[in-house]
Each structure stands twice: as C-alpha cells, then as structure tokens.
C-alpha cells in the first residue's frame, strides 16, 4: 500500500514540474508569464507613408517608409469626380495641398495640378502600384463616398487583380465601413480584411460583435489610446488580430505601451522610430 502511495506522490511531483515548465507560470501569482519579446514581430505599417518625415501619401513618404523597412505602406483612398481612385485622406484637399474643394467634386486632371508638398503630386492607386510593384505590401483603406455610397470596391479589386497583388498576398484592406468590407468580402473571400473601430465601438465592444466581425475580417483596428491588456485579450479570444492606430500627438507616448501589450500590428507615422523602439525592447 505504501509503495503505491509513494508512486502516486512521485507521479504528482513529476506532473507538477512539467506543468510549471510548459506554462512558464509565475510562482504564487497564478498569472502566466508573457512569451519572450525576442519572438515578437508585429506588423509595422507606415501610416500614409512615413508621414512624419515626408508629405503624406506622396511618393516621397512611401519611398522613405520602404527604405526604413516597414512591412506595409498604408494608403487612404477616395474617388475623384471622373471615377479615379486616388491616395488622399481628407474629404477635401485644403490640409494637404495648395488647392480647394472636395476630392469627389474634382477631376483627376484638376487634382494633378495641385502641390501635395515638396512639389509632389497626388497619386492614383494604380500609379503607386506601378511605382512600387512587389517591393512592398499595401494596407489600403476603403471608404463610402460623401453620400454613403459604395463606389470603389469592385474598381479597387480589379486593379489589385491586374497586378496580381491578391494572389501574391501583398494586400490587406481595411475600413471603418462594415458595408464596404462586406462588399469586398462578397467579391473575393481571399483578401485579408481589417475592421477599423470607431472610438464608441471600442468602448462598447462585445464578444458577439467580435464574432460577427470574424465572419469577414481577420483583424480589428482600434485607436491605441483606448487599448489596454484586457482589450487585447478580448480580441485575441475572438481569434482576431489587433492592429492599432494612433493620434499623431500621442504616438510616441503610446508606442512603448502597445509594444509591451504585444499588439499584432502598429500603424506609425515614423516606421524608423517604431522599429527602433521594438529593437530596444528586444535587446532589453
Ligand atoms: O487606417 C488606420 C488609420 O489610418 C485610421 O485612421 O483617420 O488616419 O485613416 P485615419
Ligand atoms: Ca487610414
């Protein structure tokens, strides 16, 4: 009987030892240690190119981002009056060019006359793809037009197919518009989609909402200022990735924190800075 009892004790000690090793539990805390930072490789996405260093959405900002070894260049799209897809963030051209008016009310040739900074011109998505080809990856944001219509989805997918960017896995598409993402998904189920989350959505996000997003997207994109450890856990529990974006004024303040939380991707206005932060965290 004693022999049997001793065998059981030895067995239990062995099991306990294995468990401690495999789960890296922190003794007594009941918490699980984070995986080593050395294995952590988040996607670094150049927000409107390296837009901290060069005029946003110009060939200069994309070139700088690629030189700094970003994983993706991020491109905001809008449609012109004559149906061309151009890289520009705002509804109108005032902030980023020397012109006036809404992108939707201007033709491509009118937009091409504007200076987007450092004598650069507004580019079409096709010009960007022709310039950079397969040398980078493209993280493209779709939007509804100013009247809430979906005008760019089929057109964009046709262009991406023309350059084989989808079959070569060079593209992620993102949107705040669920309607736009669902349309993209209905056209081609093989494109990785990311659902951008408005601030109010982040604050009230439920597991059921995440489950619904998971039906068409592989990732969600909240503003980093609203992200904490429990939010990251909630997203990961839904089997989704989390790619955070920043308000320009607090990017520096929050980058370290987001790397500490091991988010799966970061939009950055300065990929050189973010990659350097990541390197510093890895080397200790
Ligand atoms: O696409 C990520 C981030 O760009 C979302 O915000 O307003 O800069 O397009 P916004
Ligand atoms: Ca964007």
Label this structure with key terms:
binds calcium ion, 8-stranded parallel barrel, 284 residues, TIM Barrel, binds SN-glycerol-3-phosphate, 9 strands, 38% helix, alpha/beta, single chain, 14% strand
Description:
By secondary structure, the chain is an alpha/beta fold. The protein has a domain at about 5-15 and about 40-75 and about 135-284: Phosphatidylinositol (PI) phosphodiesterase (TIM Barrel). Helices cover about 40% and strands about 15% of the residues. It is built from eleven helices and nine strands. An eight-stranded parallel β-barrel has the order 1-2-4-5-6-7-8-9, surrounded by five helices. α10 (about 250-260) packs across α11. The chain is globular and about 50 Å long. The model is unreliable at about 5-35 (pLDDT under 50). It binds SN-glycerol-3-phosphate and calcium ion (CA). Calcium ion (CA) binds near residues 74, 76 and 141. The site of SN-glycerol-3-phosphate has 10 residues, from β2.
Low-confidence stretches: 4-34
Amount of beta strand: 5-15%
CATH class (first level) name of the domain at 3-13 and 39-74 and 133-283 = Alpha Beta
Secondary-structure class:
alpha/beta
> What is the CATH T-level topology of the domain at 3-13 and 39-74 and 133-283?
TIM Barrel
**β-strand number:** 9
Tell me the series of helices and strands, N- to C-terminal: HEHEEHHEHEHEHHEHEHEH
Biggest sheet statistics = 8 strands, parallel, barrel
Question: Alpha-carbon distance between the termini?
Answer: 53 Å
- Rg for CA atoms: 23 Å
Going by CATH, the homologous superfamily of the domain at 3-13 and 39-74 and 133-283 would be Phosphatidylinositol (PI) phosphodiesterase
Strand order of the largest sheet: 1-2-4-5-6-7-8-9
Helix content: 25-40%
Query: CATH architecture of the domain at 3-13 and 39-74 and 133-283, please?
Result: Alpha-Beta Barrel
Number of helical segments with 4 or more residues? 11
Mean pLDDT: 90
Q: Which molecules are bound besides the chains?
A: SN-glycerol-3-phosphate, calcium ion
Shape: globular
